[in-house]
Amino acid sequence: MSSVTRGGNPGEVHRASGRFSGKRLITISRRVLLQLRHDRLFLALSLLAPVIMVLFLKIFFDSMKGPGFVVSRFIVPMGAFLIHFFTYILCAIALVRERSHETLSRMFVNGFRRGEIILGFLLAYSLLATLQSLIVLVLLGWLFELSYAFEIYASIYLVIWLLAVISVALGIFLSNFAHSEAQMIPTIPLVILPSVFLSGIIVAVDKLPDWVQPISRISPLYYANNALQKLILPNGSLGDDLSSIAGLLAYGLIVLTLGSLTLKERD
């Protein structure tokens, strides 16, 4: 958009960067959403990939049915993991692409502040994450015939949505240290695999070695899984584990702050 790419004189840039502007934040979000709309292949894959993976989950868990295996313990948390996985990857790669195309540099030249850029991208990609979270939860409920009450579904969606937004913020933060997509790709297994192993989805955290248990707190999936495990219990509610919800919110605030502080004007 012209408001992002058009240059200006130094005086105008200094005045524009003096205080936070919601208008500039919306400008960035609109630009990102327009770019997503025009990149139809990226958008289609972003929405289709979670559908395909949920179908694979159905095949996998159907083959695991048997005495002693409680499928409900894994279904919703694994859905949360998928959202964490896709939102992190898509946002991180997209941000690196913006940097390699020097879009971020032009934003700084035109007076956009770090906080406006971070929150603008977060708002735009959070809208995409909102759709992904809804698609995954609806498919899980349909394919696995989940029979939770509406308020439980709403609470589950809230937790998964929070995780999605935080995963976007995490992707923004870590993309600040990469200059190209090739440099960003190695962070995917380094972030995603420890997340699922340390979250408690596969093995309860208290069964891990004592020195590993504190490390699990560095993953947002740990807090999301704790909250979801309480929600899917009989008579569960969002208030059963407010500390995990608070942990998610605190994690998101910390990552956003770090993302803003580490965003560089030029590589």
From TrEMBL:
Keyword Cell membrane part of the UniProt annotation: yes
Protein name: Transport permease protein
UniProt topology in membrane: Multi-pass membrane protein
Top-level taxon: Bacteria
Domain ABC transmembrane type-2: 41-266
Keywords: Cell membrane, Membrane, Transmembrane, Transmembrane helix, Transport
Molecular function per GO: ABC-type transporter activity
Family stated for the protein in its record: Belongs to the ABC-2 integral membrane protein family.
Annotated compartments: Cell membrane
Native organism: Candidatus Chlorohelix allophototropha
Stored Pfam families: ABC2_membrane (PF01061)
Transmembrane segments: 41-61, 73-96, 117-144, 156-175, 187-205, 242-263
Cellular compartments per GO CC: ATP-binding cassette (ABC) transporter complex
Cell membrane keyword on record: yes
Location, primary (coarse class): membrane
